[in-house]
From TrEMBL:
Pfam families registered for this protein in UniProt: Acyl-CoA_dh_1, Acyl-CoA_dh_M, Acyl-CoA_dh_N
UniProt source species: Pseudonocardia ammonioxydans
Protein's name according to its UniProt entry: Acyl-CoA dehydrogenase
Any one GO MF annotation of this record: acyl-CoA dehydrogenase activity
Family note: Belongs to the acyl-CoA dehydrogenase family.
Keywords associated with the record: FAD, Flavoprotein, Oxidoreductase
Residue ranges of every copy of the Acyl-CoA oxidase/dehydrogenase middle domain listed in the record: 145-238
Flavoprotein keyword on record: yes
Domain of life: Bacteria
Residue ranges constituting the Acyl-CoA dehydrogenase/oxidase C-terminal domain according to the UniProt record: 250-396
PROSITE patterns for this protein: ACYL_COA_DH_2
GO CC field: cytoplasm
Disordered, as annotated region: 1-27
Amino acid sequence: MTELEQHTTDTAQGAAQDGPVPDPWNTSERRALRELATDFTRREIVPHLATWESAGELPRSLHRKAAEAGLLGIGFGEDIGGAGGDLRDTVIMTEAILAAGGSTGLMAGLFTHGIALPHMIEHGDPDHIQQWVRPTLAGDTIGSLAITEPDTGSDVASIRTTARRDGDHYVVNGAKMFITSATRADFVTTAVRTGEPGAKGVSLLVIDTDTPGLGVSRRLDKMGWLCSDTAELHFDDVRVPVANLIGAEGSGFLQIMHQFQTERASLAVQAYATAARCLDLTTAWARQRETFGRTLSSRQVIRHKIVDVATAVDAARTYTRDAIDRALAGNPDVTKISMAKNVAVGACDLAVDTAVQLHGGMGYLRESEVERHYRDARILSIGGGTTEIMKEIIAKLMQI
């Protein structure tokens, strides 16, 4: 008997003796969370989403409403002002919001704290928690993460924004690009160069946006994510207290790389959840849309297109959830997370393209939900590390 066969036999025998293993993704608490997120989305988001897209940003009041509903702090400990839960809970919430008619642009704008706060939380400075983490999880303040620069994207070790020590302050000079929620943010968790060239010279500073010398150079108009404000920032002799340093000097690169894995897993979830929403919308459309006296779903070629999407969605969901299960069990796998992001993005690309194609002319109109998903989906293969960067990471870890 092979090792795999023995493992399968042992697992089956254990299951027979102990009964079925509970599904951690389908507990009563998580079913209640899914219902809560679904209801909130249908009531507080969907009726206003088109207006927010036209405005180019979300209202601050939505953050407070989401906090009051118990959604804004999902995945963050109650001891720091969060609602509790872990990465599985944030996945359930994301799936529910998108399934109910939300968008990835909405997710980016409303949950930017998911990338702005973790470095502070991991370091655990009580003053940082009190000053920035708690108010943000309460919906009273908004945070951004500023890493990307006009000439530097995934190559974090090459950032040029400098932070020169001057007594009890750092003096920050430089620029940041493509910063989500930057026009509304109260603070920006910022990657700066405090030391030598390369990864060892990178640090993280929290900078309040009302600090003199920090400003929005320009608001950026994008293809998608229209309700998520994005901007370029400039730092001109911005004086930042040394107390705002997150962790030790020179530890910023490792902090960023560690948090990237969660961000990439979250983007994978957004990708397959968008694909699942488009699958639902397209299936419903195919059942009721008639051409030449027959519904679209009566045609084999259409059914097979939808089956291809359904297969891709299920594979992406299964693969991504498995990667998350491993991470929560203490066995994070960078290769698997990188693969999950690429697999989920591929499923999303197929789903949004199929959705627009089968909706025909209606799919090309702004009034169609699938049109928004088509535009929004394009950033998912770029943000958090491009598809090409993911492949390069995988290749290196495979030692090929």
